[in-house]
Design a protein that fits this description.
The chain has 155 residues and is of the alpha/beta class. The chain contains four helices and seven strands; from the N terminus they run αββββααββαβ. The longest helix has 17 residues.
Length: 155
Amino acid sequence: MARLADLPEWEREHHLAKIRDLPDFGPTPWAAGPPLSERRVAIITTAGLSLRSDAPFTAGSADYRVLPADTPANDIVMSHVSVNFDRTGFQEDVNVVFPIGRLHELARDGVIGAAAGFHYSFMGAASIRAIEPQAQGLARLLHQDKVDAVVLSPV
């Protein structure tokens, strides 16, 4: 992983500007709810994943892709535009960035109530201000699907 000090000044400033642009949500309390063993759990990743049949993400994409839980791993592709991370882990095992197999194991073992039928992927390099309206729409979908917990997989 690169260190800020090792980056050229223009790229260092680009990354620091993203941090300064983050909204202040203030202190957010933990949400009450049922025990984990009764929760329906979805995965949200910023790995830029999509179905092979979907349009790939493009630079600055703030939208998301829907990943049905029963999608075979070889039908999931990574179209994240950033060249700043190594994709070999994903190529060897989708669970590195999209832990769907582990989620199904947790459901089977009774650790969680159920895995959601649909999961979601953003492309993490987009502006947080551009992603926020999309995330609000996604929150409504999660609510409609009775999802009451998510695994966040930032990449």
